[in-house]
Each structure stands twice: as C-alpha cells, then as structure tokens.
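Side project, low priority. Logging it here so it doesn't get lost.
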Amino acid sequence: MNRHLDIFKLSQVTIRRSKKELKQQGEHQCHLVSPLLLGDYVPVDRDPVELIKMTEANMISELLPLRHQRMSASLFAFYRGTADLMEDDLKKQNQSMLPIIICGDAHLNNYGFYASPERKLLFDLNDFDEARIGNWESDLKRLLVSVLLAGSENDFSADSLHDLCRRVVKVYRKAIKYSYHQSLTSRFYSSYEIHDMMEQLHEADHLTESSHLAHILQKIVVKSSKSNSETIVEKKTVKEKNGRRRFIDNVPRAKHVDENTYTAIVNGFYEYRNHLPADVKVLLANYTIIDIIRYSVGVGSFGTRCYLLLLAGNDGSHLVLQMKESLPLRYNLLQLTVDDVIRRSVNAGNRIVTAQKVLQSASDPFLGSTHFGHRSYYVRQFRDMKESIDVGKLDWEGFALYSEICSFLLAKAHFQSPTAPMIRGYLKGQKKIDLAIADWAVHYAQQVKKDYAAFLAGLDDHFQLR
C-alpha cells in the first residue's frame, strides 16, 4: 500500500469535489485497476509465528500464555487475533487505491449491539483498534474470510459458504449504490436501531427475513436492557466492611494495579474528562474513582494494557468505564521497535475515537481518549447494553442473513467518508466482482489454515511460543 494511505490524516478523505466528479474519478480508477484484479490472489511467503512474536513484544508478557490459549481455541479465534498478519498480506495484493476511513478489522464478531445516547439499542461495527485510512476492499475481504471460517465451524458446506460470500459482496455493492443516492444529512442521521436497520436492508436489496435470527434478536433486546454499570458492579465487585465496592481479582486476567499506575490512570482520567463535551464533563463531576483494576478482554487485544475504572456517584450509583490501550496500527508493529511504538502511540487513541465516531451511526457519549506514561488510551463505558450474536449458534438461514447485514452496515459506514462516491463509480456495473472477491477469500482462508497450523506447532505445553 502506498505511504499516503498508511497515515490517519482526514485530509486524505476530504477531497473538494462534487459527488458526480468523485464518481467519475472512481470510474477512471476502474480502468487503471480492474475490479477483477482485486480477486487475483497473490501468494504470501512469511513466518507467521515470528510475526506474531513481533506484535506481542509490545504486550504484557504474563498475559501472553492466556492470549495464546484463546487464539488456539479454533481457527476463527486465531483469525480474530491476527489482524496484523492479514493487513500485512493485503498490502501485497492488488488494491483499488480508493482511500476512505475503514474499520480495519471488520470480521463477523466485531459487530454487536450497544446503547445510543437516547438509550435505543443499535447494531453496528463496534471495534476500531485497527481503524485507518485504507482501501475499502480490505474491510470487505476481512469480513468474507470470517464468513468462511465461522461458517465452516458451523459445519456449513464449502459450496454454500462460497455462494454466500458472493452474495455478501453483492449486498455491499447494492448498499454502496443505495448510500450514493441518499442525501448527506440522511446518511449522517442514519441510526441503526435494529428494526429500522432491517427496513433499510430490505429496501436496499429485498432480503428475506430469518425467523431464527429474529428470535435471537428479540432475546438480545430483552437481555441487553439489563446490561449496565450496576449489573457489572454486582458481578465483578464485592462490598467491603466500610460499604465501599472493590473489584474482584482473577489473576492474571483481572488484577489490581500498583500505586504508581493507579495515580497515573487517575491523572489520565482527568485529562480525558477535560476534553469531553460539556454535558458529559459536568455529569462526570458527580462521580469519584473508587477502584481500578487491569482487566483484559477479547482475543486480538488480549495482552494490551486495559483497565476498568469503578466510579461512585454522589447519589450512590455506579459507573464502570473501560480505559483501553491504543497501539499504533498492529501491522505497523511488525516493523517498529518497542520504543518506536511508544513514541508513535501518543495519537493512537484519538485515531480510534475519531474513526469510531465517523463509522458508527451513533456512539457512546463517554467515548474519548487520553494518554499517560507515553502511551495512548481510549475510554468508553463498559458493556452498557452491549451484547453480541453468537454466530456459532445460528442456523444456515440466520447465519446467511447476519453476514449480509454486516456487509450492508460496512458499506454504510464506508460511505461516511467524503471520498466514498469513488467506490460507487468503481463498482458500477461490476457484477463479476462478486465472484472474484469471493474466490479470493477462499484462497486466503487456506492461508489462515496454514498459519494456524504453524501457530499450534509453535506452542509448548504452557501456551508459550517457542
């Protein structure tokens, strides 16, 4: 990938041209780089174990065995934990060179439910650690390979999954066309409350509803309404003799921090609070931090510095915030020393927050960034009405519809970038690209299987990489 697409500069996606001119530019790019070339798989030759070790050199060493255990659980879990490998490989593939703000890790499990500021339940992309200026097809290819790997674990046939990948690309094309014909404000104000989102999806591509998925969605709506800071406090804290709450240790995943780290985090919190919108800043003035714990989450980010802050309000209520380390883009970790990573990470939190606010239809009002100890962090509310769909429990009909929904939302997110009309011009009339990129995903899924086998072979009995 060219250097100008590696750097998160919004000036790269704020080209001052009309929508029609941008579309024409995309049509011109179609002649320079045929969309069918995006389906040509370029084989890669590298040692996945060594690359994983390079990424993990920036993580907390005592957490790595547990991280490896999580990654070894399944092929899909390994894929989730190695976004850096795939992005490094994507730079060696043919590329459209149409810059937009991308998620960077748009696999099936990086979509989920969360609360809007109005307390509506939304479904959208929900992880942006790898967000950057990049090529739209990088996100789409990441999604397609996840469809193949997750679907394979559900014992769906290879032919059915290949056909589904073709349909997922088609949905993306249709959603790009649909978004192109929306006004700027209509796109900006789109809010994907689950029922509204389904209506838009049917309007864009006339998809058939899945009764199984609808049943699961209804259960999630009920469950998510009970997920808030108070339920987290009940599950993850104990009340001491003085009546004050304290997080429960579960070493190494959950561990209280030392005094110096505690002080640094508190100072980082005040820095974060000072840059929030006035209404949220005033609200947080009613709260006091009463405990902090290091609490690791996920697969790919497991091993990074991640903390939970327990805040008590002056009315006796509680608020739990997550402060998560923001590393430079993980595929860049393959070329950087630990010291270089620390120097370059100062603005990483702002990159993630900015991308999330652009790509999500609505975002957590507590979302913000901070930095301390030469490291960058972003802050958000912890598990506020947050739920996800376990794709392993979906039948074929539900899995297919879920995959198509994710593709639809991906296209809608991509079209928040001012340069996105170029994608419309590039894809217009290019129905053959559906099969081409689906074929590419099948080839890359085989590469992931090879990498997974090498990873398992590199582990010792204690889940350490030799």
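Brief comment: The first strand starts at residue 99 and ends at 102.
Revisit when time allows.
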